[in-house]
Each structure stands twice: as C-alpha cells, then as structure tokens.
Amino acid sequence: MSIEQLEETARAMVAPGKGIIAIDESTNTIRKRFDAVGLECTEENRRAYREMLLTTPGLGEHISGAILYDETIRQKTRDGVPFTQVMMKNGIIPGIKVDKGTFPLAGCPGEVVTEGLDGLRDRLKEYYALGARFAKWRAVINIGDDIPTGTCIEANSHALARYASLCQENGLVPMVEPEVLMDGSHDIETCYEVTEVVLRSLFGALYDFDVMLEGTILKASMVLPGKDCAEKASVEEVAAATVRCLKSSVPAVLPGIVFLSGGQSDEEATAHLDAMNRMGPHPWPLSFSYGRAMQSAALKLWAKDMAGNYAAAQKTVAQRARENGLAALGQWTK
Ligand code: 13P
Questions:
Q1: Contacts of 119 (CB under 8 A, 6+ apart)
Q2: What is the annotated signal peptide range for this record (predicted)?
Q3: Ligand 1 centroid vs 212 CA: distance in angstroms?
Q4: Ligand 1, atom 5: closest residue by C-alpha
Q5: Bridge partners of 258?
Q6: What's residue 294's pLDDT?
Q7: Residue 283 is assigned to a structural domain of this protein
Q8: CB 22 less than 6 A from any atom of ligand 1
C-alpha cells in the first residue's frame, strides 16, 4: 500500500468543515442505547437504525467518514445496497472499529486494557476488501485514586501502536483513540496531566513501531473536569486546556485530530470544538468523530415512531453534522 494513499485518506477524513460520525457501537453498547429509548435490540432494528443514519440526505456535505461495527459493514439497505456502497456514493469514507473491547488489566485493579490484536492482520485484509479505508481502536484510561498507573498507560499504548502498524501494512489509516474518561470527581488539571502523559506515551510507542504519522489520525478526549467534580470549567477553559495539552504532546506532522464526545451534551461538544478552532490556527485541523453527540436526538425521535419520524430523525442528524462542521471551522453560532 502506498504511503500517498494513506496520506490522502487521512487528509480527506479531516477536510475543512468535515468530520466523522461514529456508529460503531458493539451489540452490547447499542443495546444500552436502545434500552434507554425502549427499542428492542434485534438485528433488523440495528440495521434499520443504521440505514436511517447513513442515508440522511446531504450527509456527505459535513461528514467525511463513518465508523462502522463488524455487523454493520456487512449490512445492506432495505433495497439490498451494501451500506459501504451508499457511503462511497455520497463521498463518505467507510471506517471500521477493530478492537474487541476492554478487559480488566491483570495486576492493575480498576484499570482496563483493550484486546483484539490476535488475528487482526487477517481481519484488516477482510475489512479492506469490504471497502474500509480507516480503522479505529479505543483504549480507555480511568482516573481515580492512584490510577492511571504507568503500567496501564504503557500496555494500552503498546496495543495501539501494534494495531496502528498493522493497519498501515494493510492499507488502512489507523485512528488511534486513547480515551481518558470523564467519570470521577477529579479536576481539570488532573485530566490535563493524565491526558498529557497518555499522549506522550502513545506517540512514543507509535515511533517505536515505525508508524507513519502522516497516515494516522488521533481521536482524542477533551481536557475536562470529571463529571462529579464540584468545580465546573467554562467553554473557553476547556478549549484552552485541550489545545495546550495537544500542542505539548502531538507532533505537528499528524494530518488531523478528531474528538470523541464522551458523554458531553450535544451543545457542549459543539461549543468546545468551536472554541478551540476560534483559538487557531493550530498545527493540525481539529474536527469531530462524535457518536452520542451526533446521534442521540435522532435516536430518540426514531424510537418514538420509526416510520412517522424517519425524515425528522434524519433532519436532526443533518443538523448535528452541519453544526459540528461549522464548529470544525470555528464558525458555529448558538
Ligand atoms: P462518543 O462520541 O459517544 O464518545 O463516541 C465516540 C466513539 O467512537 C468512542 O469510541
């Protein structure tokens, strides 16, 4: 696979005013989302829901790519057209989540490591043949008493780097995602310190494994106070801390950084991204790769009346895409 192709894909993922929609929930995760709105988690409901999202009229105007799950990348529209074909026709690059989720890290109570490296080379070859051009692997870092440990950070960075190297070997742009969770009562400074250590460890590991940064995208968590922290932070504080942290740890050669929403409200996720871009220019485009903050309004509507609210649900997806696209340019207004 040529380096140029990887670079081209990576740059297209963060084209100006465009970002990514994450619809790669595992069956267990989408079951939780469906339960919350009273939907049954059948294969047909999952397929129909993803079809509704992916066939949103005009989605490609502000969405450069979508991250799918193993089940979803094999599914088709009601009319029998593979989802990947619908996406490519609309200029949306198919991506695929390839990790197998988090498991307790032995010897490190309260911490997890992401698994899924066994057999990954063959799976990547299959996903490429199915149309995927980028992949995602999510590591999870918890903040708490005496955690994260260096052991946990290193184990996760090592796995991310091995995954990224395998992706590039097989023609897929690795989206590396070390998510520092919002859960807990820690303050924003603690989140800053942890995120900085995690990112420096990750880029050290990517270097060790000879990962070409020009063909890599970082999916980062924002620097935020924990959900239960008494001291809230303003939009400007979050934006400034996040940008400072990224500048201190992410090489400028990276083609782009996208953020996860991580449990922020739709509006917070958009406002934070917008504020960061207003502080630019930065060494890299800063855009979005939101799951919940792209989908939650649409899911609620669709669950109430799948047929009757179909167009209305799609309208909210298009609206979220437009707002986040503007935020990626620092041009969003409330
Ligand atoms: P959220 O935006 O809902 O955090 O999901 C993004 C994602 O893909 C997390 O891995």
A1: none
A2: none
A3: 24
A4: 291
A5: 219, 287
A6: 98
A7: yes
A8: yes
Among the options 111, 177, 179, 323, which is catalytic?
177
Say whether 219 is catalytic: yes
What is the rounded distance in angstroms from the CA atom of residue 258 to the CA atom of residue 149? 25
Residue 180 domain-assigned?
Answer: yes
**Is omega for the bond preceding 281 within 30 degrees of 0, making it cis?**
yes
The b-or-e profile of 312-330 (16+ CB within 10 A means b, else e) is ebbbbbbebbbbbbbbbbb
Which domain, by its residues, includes 125?
3-329
Averaged pLDDT of the chain: 98
Task: List pLDDT tens digits, range 160-198.
Answer: 999 999 999 999 999 999 999 999 999 999 999 999 999
- ipTM score for this prediction: 0.94
Q: What is the pLDDT of residues 1-28, one digit of tens each?
A: 689 999 999 999 999 999 999 999 999 9
Q: From CA 258, how far away is CA 134, in angstroms rounded? A: 14
Q: Nearest-CA neighbor of 136 among 87, 98, 101, 92?
A: 98
Residue 282's closest CA among 334, 238, 235, 246?
A: 246
Q: Is residue 290 lining ligand 1, measured as CB closer than 6 Å?
A: yes
Q: Please choose from 160, 217, 259, 260 the residue to mutate so as to test ligand 1's pocket, defined by most ligand atoms within 8 A of CB.
A: 260
Below-50 pLDDT ranges, the chain: none
User: Domain for residue 334, yes or no?
Assistant: no
268 burial (CB, 10 Å; 0-12 / 13-18 / 19+) is middle
Residue 95 lies in a domain: yes
DSSP annotation of 217: E
Task: Determine whether the shortest distance from the Cβ of 171 to ligand 1 is under 6 A.
Answer: no
Question: Ligand 1 mean position to 120 CA, how many Å?
Answer: 22
Pull the structure tokens for residue 37.
Answer: 């709105």
- Number of independent structural domains in the chain: 1
> How remote is the CA of residue 333 from the centroid of ligand 1, in Å?
23
CA 177 to ligand 1: nearest atom? 10
